[in-house]
Design a protein that fits this description.
heterodimer, A: about 240 residues, mainly alpha, about 0% strand, B: about 425 residues, MYOD Basic-Helix-Loop-Helix Domain, subunit B, two-stranded parallel sheet, elongated
Chain lengths: ~240, ~425
């Protein structure tokens, strides 16, 4: 039984770890590359909260490990994880025969579609078959959405979807909170910069304001500043 | 402030869950006492899975097969008295939204130890009364597991409108069954190897399903029906997880909603990662303070205390201004202090990549621009009487704008700048 709060906490810890491992110091990182790195670390983090118990998490890790550039990051992030995930990242996700099975199913489906006999069926059966087709189409779409979904049967597909939705929600919540927090910080920094700018402009226009800046504890109330204030101001500037 | 209260609101729906589980366990305790007085009933079909209280349905869905089989027999039996007072479909014990997330969370622990412990406990409590009432449990034989697993990969997700209707009306025929049992003898078809006794029931490897009236009993259709009912049970859980799916009937439309939901969540992740990439060219975190700050209330408050952006590209910082801002951090007690009020705030310099915030700082965003206005007032009206120039006005207006007080800035400009 997992509380959503613990999911979020675990995800955040692992995501922070991943972001630290990402090499953001490179100056030539475009925004797209940064976004990819952030998304990758978020995905690996949310997959690792599952500890390899669910199919989608393993599929996610495997997909990320396919590209060599990302694989390094993945392995570093999962260094402290369970054996299952490490195994998944090192080998391929599924055995090649599964791909063969899927491909042969697709071929069969296409051939069936080609040689369908248009028989006149009673209305009720027609409605049933239409509904079946609709459901089938949608399960195909769902299989393409859930990572690793093509290899699951219907029952486990629904279970995986359930788990996947919960994890996605936790991921979105954490990322939203982080984005809001950074926006907040930026706003505050802007305001502070404005205040600084104003004071700077004020100081540059006239020296009496320099006295104000240098010693605010007396600035508003005493006006007995002489040149020692200016030197004190200079001293302050150089000390910081 | 939006930030602390938002996650706080999100956490508040979690609290009613504990009441739900307490309620369920209470019910369970009463059921055991009812059990003995209840006349022998036929065992349920898989459709009884749908009637179970959510936590047990979840356990059944996810326990390994053997325990599933044995417990199906026992659990469904316990739930019969629980459900009997509720004969109308509207009164069914389906979970409300408050229990959803807990169940869904529990659902996601596949074969966790907790589940096994719970199942062991329930086995122990139920084996007592079930032994005492030997003929209470009647089971119907169903197909073995191998047939099921063979069928599963080959068949696609099939559910026709009739099945869905059956699913919706499942409760009513089952209820009717219960009602019938009281008075009349059961006229249902059942397999020949029907009614075993309770002592053997726990050891049997098969799930026993009673065929409903008027339905075929050959193994294929039974297997298919069992499979369909499994799928329906899980779809119901999924329906309750995704918002807005409760009123929709029909598998295809529900799947539509689920697909939309998953797609929107994935798109949100993309968008948020783009947003984070735009705002922070570098995100550097101090793990020690982060992990120290992480108590139970990670999301509720103090989140920004863990966020330490390294550089802010929008902020035009030059060396001089930084120095001024550092100067402002004075310990003047009685007089208004310029710059930051909070103690633990270190401004970012290129060398210093650590930044931490008090929670008070986040909520008290409004004081700084007032400080700026104060400075301006003092500058103009003080005994020195500096003439305010256009740049000063511009600064003040900009300050007010970035603080969100745009009209004030406009008025200020109109009033003073001419």
């Amino acid at each position: 039984m997992r509380a959503p709060q613990s999911i979020k906490q675990e995800f955040l810890k692992k995501w922070i770890l991943g972001l630290q491992l990402c090499d953001f110091a490179k100056q030539n990182m475009s925004m797209l590359e940064r976004k990819k790195a952030i998304k990758l670390s978020a995905d690996i983090a949310i997959a690792s909260t599952r500890n390899g118990m669910t199919c989608w998490s393993r599929a996610l890790v495997a997909k990320a490990s396919r590209d060599y550039g990302d694989k390094v990051l993945v392995e570093r992030m999962l260094a402290s994880e369970s054996e299952k995930l490490k195994k998944v990242s090192s080998i391929g996700l599924i055995a090649p025969n599964k791909w063969v099975i899927i491909r042969s199913k697709k071929i069969l489906r296409k051939s069936r579609r080609a040689r369908r006999v248009r028989s006149s069926v009673p209305q009720s059966v027609l409605a049933k078959s239409i509904a079946k087709k609709m459901v089938k189409k949608r399960t195909q779409v769902l299989k393409s959405l859930v990572p690793g979904g093509e290899f699951m049967d219907d029952i486990s597909l629904i279970e995986e979807t359930l788990d996947y939705i919960i994890s996605l929600r936790a991921q979105v919540d954490v990322m939203q909170t982080l984005a809001k927090a950074t926006d907040l910080l930026n706003e505050r920094a802007k305001v502070q910069a404005q205040v600084g700018h104003l004071a700077l402009a004020a100081e540059s226009t006239a020296s009496p304001t320099a006295r104000l800046i240098s010693d605010p504890s007396e600035a508003f109330f005493k006006q007995t500043r002489e040149s020692p204030q200016v030197t004190r101001h200079q001293g302050h500037r150089s000390s910081s | 402030m939006e930030l602390p209260t938002g996650p706080g609101h999100r956490s508040s729906p979690m609290r009613p869950q504990s009441e739900d589980t307490v309620f369920d366990s209470l019910q369970f305790g009463e059921d055991i006492q009812h059990l003995i007085s209840v006349p022998p009933e036929n065992a349920s079909s898989f459709t009884a899975l749908l009637e179970l209280p959510p936590n047990q349905a979840v356990e059944l869905l996810h326990s390994p097969d053997s325990t599933l089989r044995t417990r199906t027999v026992i659990e469904t039996h316990h739930q019969k008295p629980y459900l009997q007072p509720q004969f109308n479909a509207a009164n069914l014990a389906f979970p409300t939204n408050s229990g959803l997330i807990e169940r869904a969370a529990r659902l996601s622990v596949f074969a966790g130890e907790n589940l096994n412990n719970i199942s062991n406990n329930s086995l122990e409590t139920s084996s007592g009364p079930s032994n005492s009432s030997a003929n209470l449990e009647k089971v119907v034989k169903s197909e073995p597991a191998e047939a099921e697993s063979d069928l599963n990969p080959s068949q696609p997700l099939v559910s026709d409108p009739t099945t869905v209707e059956n699913g919706a009306q499942n409760q009513r025929p089952v209820k009717r069954k219960e009602r019938e049992k009281k008075g009349k003898s059961s006229t249902k078809k059942s397999k020949s190897s029907g009614n075993d006794n309770s002592e053997d029931a726990e050891k049997l490897p098969y799930v026993h399903v009673r065929a409903r009236r008027g339905q075929a009993t050959d193994s294929h259709s039974l297997a298919e029906r069992a499979r369909r009912e499994k799928i329906n049970a899980r779809m119901k859980l999924l329906q309750e997880l995704v918002p807005g799916c409760n009123k929709i009937s029909g598998t295809a439309l529900v799947l539509d909603e689920i697909i939309n939901h998953v797609q929107s969540l994935q798109r949100q992740v993309e968008f948020l990662s783009m947003r984070l990439a735009a705002v922070n060219p570098r995100i550097d975190f101090n793990l020690d303070s982060t992990l120290a700050a992480e108590g139970g209330s990670l999301m509720d408050s103090n989140f920004p205390s863990m966020v330490m952006p390294l550089t802010w590209p929008e902020v035009q910082v030059n060396g001089n201004r930084q120095n001024y801002q550092q100067q402002w951090h004075f310990d003047a007690v009685n007089q208004p202090v310029w710059g930051r009020e909070e103690d633990s705030y270190n401004f970012i310099t290129p060398e210093n990549s650590l930044l931490s915030y008090d929670s008070s700082a986040n909520s008290d965003h409004g004081r700084l621009e007032d400080k700026g206005l104060e400075i301006f007032d003092v500058m103009v009206k003080g005994n020195n009487g500096i003439q305010a120039e256009i740049e000063h006005y511009g600064c003040v207006v900009d300050l007010l704008r970035s603080a969100g007080r745009v009209e004030e800035g406009f008025e200020f400009y109109q009033k003073d700048a001419f």
